[in-house]
Design a protein that fits this description.
cytoskeletal motor activity; eight-stranded mixed β-sheet; 5 helices; Myosin_TH1; about 220 residues; about 30% helix; alpha+beta
Length: about 220
């Protein structure tokens, strides 16, 4: 009887401590924890660098709305901007690296070059999001095969866990994030596909190899 009473008191004490902790959380802290739960579901045990990312709080955004070109703001007016981060975009054919911004609104993802919107992906049409299991920051956003889209979007993000988490939460595509090993296929456009190969080497690099594949080291 004493053992049962002790166990009941222990559980009651634990519930009270948890309740007190939850009530003391700020709104910002709750959002952080909710995002980290999604990150864990997507990446835990799958991608290198996940454990190191646990202690790093996610920022609301890496760039503020005022940092965007006024022409871009005018083009996406009426949409609530949620997150902006610098990225490197790789061309789908020659794989040339281009400095871009990834702008996530409530309804769409935009790849932006200065005052131009280079590509718009509505979340409702987004087919999936792919990353590798290694420590690189490559993210591939898979888009539908139609005339509106040039092909899948290949990006390199400095804060890959943060960026993918924000994207899959806003797009409600958590179940469609894939962490791949070895290689992945991406759509170039006009029914064509390309291959990206992930490997380990002495220093990080991204290049087009002799076979025409995009190699990520």
């Amino acid at each position: 009887f004493l053992m049962q009473t002790s166990e009941m008191l222990r559980k009651m004490c634990m519930r009270n401590l948890v309740r007190k902790y939850c009530r003391g959380l700020t709104a910002e802290r709750k959002v952080q924890l909710q995002q980290k739960v999604v990150t864990s579901a997507v990446f835990s045990g799958k991608k290198e660098g996940y454990l190191e990312s646990l202690s790093q709080p996610f920022l609301d955004t890496r760039l503020k709305e005022n940092d965007l070109n006024p022409k871009v703001l005018q083009l996406i007016r009426g949409e609530n901007i949620k997150y902006v981060t610098p990225v490197i975009k790789y061309d789908r054919n020659g794989f040339k690296a281009r400095e871009r911004l990834l702008v996530l609104t409530q309804s769409s993802a935009y790849v932006v070059e200065m005052a131009k919107i280079k590509q718009k992906i509505e979340y409702s049409t987004l087919k999936g999001i792919s990353t590798s299991n290694l420590s690189d920051g490559i993210v591939v956003i898979h888009v539908p095969e139609d005339n509106k889209q040039k092909g899948d979007v290949i990006l390199q993000c400095e804060h890959v866990f943060e960026t993918v988490t924000k994207l899959c939460i806003l797009a409600n595509k958590q179940s469609q994030v894939k962490v791949v090993k070895g290689s992945l296929r991406f759509r170039v456009g006009s029914g064509k596909e390309g291959t990206m190969v992930f490997t380990v080497g002495p220093e990080p690099q991204v290049f087009k190899d002799k076979t025409g594949q995009l190699t990520v080291v």
